Amino acid sequence: MKLYYIPASCSLAPHIVAHELGLDLALVKVDHRTHRTELGGDYRGTNPLGYVPALELDDGQVFREGAVVLQYLADLKPEAGLAPAHGTMERYWLQEWLNFLSAEVHKGFIPLLYAGLAGNYVETARPKLAQRYAWIDAQLAGRDFLMGAQFTVADAYLFALTGWGQAAWLTSYYKAGIHFDGLGNLAAWYERLRARPSVRLALEREGLA
Predict the structure, then answer these.
(1) 91: which residues sit within 8 A by CB, 6+ positions away?
(2) Domains defined for the chain, CATH in brackets
(3) Would you state the torsion angle of the CA atoms of residues 179, 182, 186, 187, taken in this order, to the nearest 10 degrees?
(4) Which terminus of the chain has a lower count of CB atoms within 10 Å, N or C?
């Protein structure tokens, strides 16, 4: 299998999961400006929309949506518990988290990442995103991870997104900062994630350590 990624993007999430599961994935770096891969190919042949991640299976089929990629990888080794079993209530709670992160947090960052184009809308988007993070902080009260005591693919996704709000080059240039002031549960969760070997390996591989 091949995982197409852009450093520091949302593709960091399946990259973390791959390390967590010990999967032998071929990592293919994509240039976000030219859409060329490090192998010299045109990434738009894999995903015409141009965004990452994309997971190319050994038979040539391609998953192009991050939430699907995460669940597919988790289901390769269900004994690891990164996604609850299909048909259980816990699986639906996981899917609720993944949908929330995609629609309310991932998309919520977009105006901040394109502040020059978004203009004054940034001042509307920033407090809305901050409210979402305050809600997440409340959900983490008394929990080690989003689903409780078990690390799941939702934690990997949130970590990748939250990194955008912490990276100095993003906060200074794109004004995308999300601060942990008053969000003690989130801050403690973030440090727990950073300490995981799978996270450290993925950050190192992407030059983000």
Answers:
(1) 83, 84, 85
(2) 2-80 (3.40.30.10), 89-196 (1.20.1050.10)
(3) 70
(4) C
Which pLDDT score is estimated for 165? 76
Provide the 8-state DSSP code for 30.
Answer: B
- The answer to whether the beta carbons of residues 16 and 198 sit under 8 Å apart is yes
User: What is the spatial distance between Cα 164 and Cα 191, in angstroms, rounded to a whole number?
Assistant: 15
**% residues pLDDT > 90 (the chain):** 78
What interhelical angle do 153-166 and 66-76 show, nearest 10?
140
Tell whether the model's pLDDT for residue 150 goes beyond 70: yes
Q: Is the pLDDT of residue 170 over 60?
A: no
How far is CA 131 from its chain centroid? 19
Type of residue at 133: Y
CA 144 to each of CA 103, 188, 191: distance values in angstroms, whole numbers, following the listed order: 23, 9, 11
Per DSSP, the three-state class of 31 is coil
Is the pLDDT assigned to residue 121 strictly greater than 50?
Answer: yes
Residue type (1 letter), 143: R
Three-state DSSP class for 3? strand
CA-atom Rg of the chain in angstroms: 17
* 58: helix, strand or coil: coil
With H, G, I as helix, E, B as strand and everything else as coil, classify residue 125.
helix
pLDDT tens, 126-138? 888 889 999 999 9
